[in-house]
Amino acid sequence: MRQDEAQGAGTVFGDFVAGTVWADVAAQSHEAKRSILNFFATALGSANDPAVTAALRTLLPFSGAATSTIIGRSERLDAMCASFLNAISANLLDFDDTHLDTIIHPAAPVAAPVLALAQAREFSGRAVLTAFILGVEVECRVGNAVSPGHYARGWHITSTCGVFGAAAACAKLLGLSADQISNAIGIAASQSAGIVENLPSAAKNVSVGNAARNGLFAALLAAEGYSASPRAIEGPLGWARAMGDEPDMARLTGSLGKTWEIAKNTYKPYPAGIVFHAVIDACFELRASLNQRIDNIASITVQGSALLLARGDRPVRNERDARVSIHHCAACALLLGAAGVTEFADATVFRPNIVSLRQKVRAMLDGSLPDGAARVIIQLTSGETFEKVVMEAKGSLADPLSDRDVEAKVRDCARLGGTDWDIDRIIDGVWRLDTLADVASLMRVHG
To answer: Burial level of 355, CB count in 10 A (0-12/13-18/19+)?
Structure first.
């Protein structure tokens, strides 16, 4: 038995998180800033969404001291309630960052509680960045250890693994000892939940919000002396096996501190499930080839992996369905030449010409294509066919969004969300996060 297996993953993570200092993670800080900037974009875009407003109305009567801001709004709640709200708003549009190996959206469950706690306790930007990077590392390693079976079995991996990242990050921010951090991670294991079946509904966002809030709660309980098994993740009756998985210990704790999962993070150009981006890109290219002959399309065949079909071969009843629909992604890209937030809103989803084109789309399995790739074949009424394969979609590690692209996304989402926050100040503040003495300055409504 290896030493880390004998110790328990909680002990290994506890030692790692407690012992890591800014100098160890500084090289990862730019990617962390990109992730946090993308987090602000998506949270600002949903700031006034009915789901956020309803959750705010629900939590407001039960909130403690109003220390932490709801991003894009003027209201404040206590740190745990703010963590919940900011995590759900960052996840609502399906526009958040993506760790492609696991399909975890790392920032929402980790950035939300870290920023809420930092605002409440006046922590520095450098402390926030350090904690955030470590939280992302833990959540994605837990996800790596149980992928792909965990998600395929129906567990919503951002929620179920995000709670571990939130716990580790908040415990680091609080300055807990290695043993306390291990306990926080173990406590998080008892609060992990979220199911894929709920993806087309707001219930999906509840589990993401809980991951953020419960992770902070786990860290606060550990700070007060609560304990947990150091093998709560991988033990014989632990989290992984209870979820149905035999964890891969090498992916859980191997090379810890030598490789960094945040370096594998990606950012979406389209507010849809990441596996649909190749479909959209292929349709954009085919649209140019068709030269205004969209009305002559007889059929559209989209081929891809089992994951693509499992996620997106579905009827479209609302805008949430549209964001995880092969048929809608193909239809809006071909007919409108765009796939922004507007193209996934109800007004577009139910346009008669979009509905009609969606009905011409069929999805087919091609086991030779990897996850994230797609082939689109269009046949015209004349019998002429057009085909395009996209192996690496825009926004992937092979074709990443630039820093300026991410900034533009913040501005676009802020306009969508109708916020009066000073967006230039947010963008500048995130890029300078490691220089801020108190992160509360970043979280103010106005400068």
So the answer is: middle
Residue 3: pLDDT band by 50, 70, 90 thresholds? very low
Helices (H), 195-298: 203-223, 239-242, 249-253, 277-290
DSSP single-letter state for residue 392: S
Is 195 in contact with 32 (CB distance < 8 Å)? no
Q: Which of 275-307 are b and which e, b meaning 16 or more Cβ less than 10 Å from the residue's Cβ?
A: bbbbbbbbbbebbeebeeebeebeebbbbbbeb
Is residue 179 packed enough to be buried (19+ CB in 10 Å), middle (13-18) or exposed (0-12)? middle
Q: Residue count of the chain, please give it.
A: 447
Beta bridge partners of 142: none
Amino acid at 353: N
Which of helix, strand or coil describes residue 421?
Answer: coil
Give yes or no on whether 3-267+400-441 and 274-390 have one common fold.
no
Q: Measuring CA to CA, which residue among 405, 402, 410 is closest to residue 430?
A: 410
The second-level CATH assignment, the architecture, of 274-390 is 2-Layer Sandwich (3.30)
Instruction: Return phi, psi of residue 443, to 5°.
Output: -95, 5
pLDDT in tens, 82-121: 999 999 999 998 899 999 999 999 999 999 999 999 999 9
> pLDDT digits over 150-168, tens only?
998 999 999 999 999 999 9
* CATH H-level, domain 3-267+400-441: superfamily: 2-methylcitrate dehydratase PrpD (1.10.4100.10)
The domain segmentation of the chain, as residue ranges, is 3-267+400-441, 274-390
Would you call 85 helix, strand, or coil by DSSP? helix
Residue 361 φ then ψ, to 5°: -95, 135
202 pLDDT tier (thresholds 50, 70, 90): confident
Helix (H, G, I), strand (E, B) or coil at 248: coil
CB 51 within 8 A of CB 92: yes
Tokens for 178, please give them. 């290695």
